[in-house]
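*Target chain*
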Amino acid sequence: MGIAERKQREKERRIREILESARDLFLSKGCDNTTMLDIAEKSELSRRTLYHYFESKEEISYIIMLEAYKTLKEMVGQAENLSTMNGIERLNAYQEIFFNFYHDHFDQFAFTLFLDQKIGFIERPNEEARKCLSIMDNVISVIKNTLDMGVEDGSIIYISNTKEAAVTMLTMILSTMQKIYIRKDWIKESFDVDDDQIIRTMFSMFMSAIRP
């Protein structure tokens, strides 16, 4: 291994350590309450060295968010290749994918909430934020195509604007799961309903509305 290759591997390792440290801090303290100094100390770096790798906390947070959205895109892509399913069956597969994303990738799921919070306060999203939004556009297109398929094969009722329905479905899914993420302990204590029940009920209500 040459010197240049060894240096590049060391740089990649250091970046990964910084991102993992930042992820832990964002989840435990919240993105707004985490500072670059916090990230530097947890990464066992000086703040000056940290700035050599990243310009700001925001840059770090968007990179972590993008990783979360890439995971979701990969999971959705798995169901997109299930050609033997009709429209409604494929939507059911998407339900399970989002459910599994919430459960099996909970730490990553949390950062979809962070993106929504940040985008709401800026006029021009940076490059990493635009990449996240682009992935969401892709997921919406996948859902739209599935709705079109279901309308055509008769497994879904006629929908005049399937893109609008796809945006509505994705908004319902993410909004419900994000609200539960924030309030699930209160919901369980107040109503004796756990997060799985609410997510399943939300999916069931949407699917009932579009079945023939």
The two ends are 62 Å apart (CA to CA). Residues 1-54 form a domain with the Arc Repressor Mutant, subunit A fold (CATH 1.10.10.60). The chain has nine helices and no strands.
